[in-house]
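ABC transporter permease: structure tokens wanted.
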Amino acid sequence: MPEDTTLSESSHAPASPDGNGPGTGAGRTSGTSTATVSGKTSRTTGKGATGDGRAAGPRKRRVPETIGLLVFLAAEIVFFSVQSPYFFNWDNWGNILTAVSITGVLAAAGTLLLVAGQFDLSVGSGVAFVGIVLVETAPDLGLGPALLLSVLAGVGIGLLNGFLVTVVGVNALITTLGMLGIFRGLTLVIGKGQSIFIEGFDWATARPFLGIPMPAVVLVVVVVLFYVLMHYTVFGRKMYAIGANPVAARLVGIRVNRTIFAGFLLSGACMALAGLLVTSQLGSSSANTGVGLELAVVTAVILGGTSLSGGTGTIFGTVVGLLIVGVLSNGLTLLNVDSSWQQVATGVLLILAVAVDRLRQTYLRKAG
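Answer:
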């Protein structure tokens, strides 16, 4: 990828990975200003005055957006701990982490894409397709080649999504919705609508360290990798820059389409990993595998503070959003609340998350 060059302040500078943006808020200084997307150089000249000639005052300290999420999560934990004696124990938290692991692996890539203003709603059907490829080919080819084909299937879905979005120019929402239907149908055709079992593929049921389930270990590894990728690499900063202002990103020399394409490839790789995880957990795969995962992923990502308009969001926020949904679902199950009402609660959370995001964007526009 080419090295990023400087960008004049005449174009909007991209937001920083922490979502607060590179500017000085309402008191943005006048004069000449340059900044590199990679974060290597930041230079400002001028008198330190605001646009109307007033002296720039001290910057207001902003409260992290995740504070509200953490308070809500803590309130959930306290409530369910009081209501159920089985909630706050190690085994139950293992169940919670296992339950959210599949969604979390997909949400990590979903966060990366959404900060660039892109969507991937094909994740649920992609997970099912990876699983059905594995269980169908393993008996004839052996587990090793079947695993390779399954991974290639997941990455291939990401490649198709990236090609249609960045080369053909189809909107990401339309592309991935179409892929959702295509690969759900292909999974149904290949599996003939049946659950197909696989032998000797139960690695995800192990508890290798202190009784922690393997899916939780995988989730932690994926979260750490994406955290480093998004906050400490040029690629991650480019994704934020594209989401904040794609025109400005092109002006500083970022190859926008190539960067977005790489993001979809990573999403496909996460589909492959999630498909292998869920197949190992269940010991089988079917056309119904992964139904509703796209809704769960979007809920966790948006609830965690990633903006629908791109440019802001963090992996940490997504993890908190993921835990909020997971704790809510687990707690309602322990209280014997019908699963239908759990779906209602998840839908309400999604609507509230989007509403809060819209209100936050309106507030930032007025404040800026």
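The beta strands are 6-8, 33-36, 42-44, 196-197, 284-285. DSSP finds twelve helices and five strands in the chain.

Cheers.
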